[in-house]
What we know:
mainly alpha, elongated
Amino acid sequence: MTQVKEKQKKEKRFNFSSILLGKLTRNACFLIFLICLILFLLYLLGNFQTFTDRTQLTILNVLSVTASALCILSVFAFVLEIVLIFIKKKKTGSVISMLFFVFTLVTGGVFFAFSVIINRIASGI
């Protein structure tokens, strides 16, 4: 009887940690996506508000760093969701989360490519 209780405790502990890790990566990915979006819009706004060139380059550098972090975190979160699908055997919310992570991976790649290309053009190739 005690072995059954210990097994249930281990399952509850694993379930709690997997849910916490899934929510943490999902929220972190969403936060970094919003930061990338705000930086991109700030760069576009800076073109119309005539920010200095140095400020524009700084925004592009920060955008490239956050976009690369977004791509890395999206891949990590995607793999985590795949692992949790096989462990928990529950696919309802995981598929939506996986689509979100693919979306953030693609947009992170677009933001990264945009910032690197514009930065190279601005520095004179």
